[in-house]
């Protein structure tokens, strides 16, 4: 396998879990529409695959945020590279992330977006690395809990590489 990357979560496991998450979200948002906020770049694959399987009406917007740069640890400073295009006022907003690690990114984002008067605001993350948390965040939908290892693939990068791997692996 390229650069000795060990599979942690296979493509089949990811697809199965995304289906389950989409079913749960479709039940929870029944009778409403859900406004997905995709946090670029990491969440691009997950958010698009999830959106395709949700059966209630979906709208989407994109925000680009970065704090890791080329490192394996957070710089501690969350930078917004691109803000949302549309207002989230009175919308049922679901932030879609690839991973919650230290919790800094999502803590910063939920505080920021809460000031913009959404009707509701929740988080869906594919991966959760609870051992690394330095900031508490309430996450409603979690795909997989993973151990304290730096992972790549299915959107996640190391030095901008490996995002296109169809599985989640450890370098
Ligand atoms: O919980 P945290 O410690 O804040 O880490 C999680 C965040 O870090 C990664 O983004 P990154 O800054 O690497 O940007 P990218 O998505 O463009 O790779 C990841 O995609 C999450 O957004
Ligand atoms: O384990 C990780 N891998 C890639 N990007 C990340 N950003 C936070 N944690 C990670
Ligand atoms: Mg990254």
Automatic annotation (TrEMBL):
It holds the Pfam family Pribosyltran. Pathway: Purine metabolism; IMP biosynthesis via salvage pathway; IMP from hypoxanthine: step 1/1; Purine metabolism; GMP biosynthesis via salvage pathway; GMP from guanine: step 1/1. It is an enzyme of class 2 (transferase). One of its GO terms (molecular function) is nucleotide binding. One of its GO terms (biological process) is guanine salvage. Residues 13-159 form the Phosphoribosyltransferase domain. The keyword Transferase applies. Keywords: Cytoplasm, Glycosyltransferase, Magnesium, Metal-binding, Nucleotide-binding, Purine salvage, Transferase. It is found in: Cytoplasm. Its EC number is 2.4.2.8. It comes from the Bacteria. Its cofactor is Mg(2+). It catalyses: GMP + diphosphate = guanine + 5-phospho-alpha-D-ribose 1-diphosphate; IMP + diphosphate = hypoxanthine + 5-phospho-alpha-D-ribose 1-diphosphate. InterPro entries: HGPRT, Hxn_phspho_trans, PRTase-like, PRTase_dom. One of its GO terms (cellular component) is cytosol. Purine salvage pathway enzyme that catalyzes the transfer of the ribosyl-5-phosphate group from 5-phospho-alpha-D-ribose 1-diphosphate (PRPP) to the N9 position of the 6-oxopurines hypoxanthine and guanine to form the corresponding ribonucleotides IMP (inosine 5'-monophosphate) and GMP (guanosine 5'-monophosphate), with the release of PPi. Belongs to the purine/pyrimidine phosphoribosyltransferase family. This is Hypoxanthine phosphoribosyltransferase. It comes from Herbinix hemicellulosilytica. The lineage of its organism: Bacteria, Bacillati, Bacillota, Clostridia, Lachnospirales.
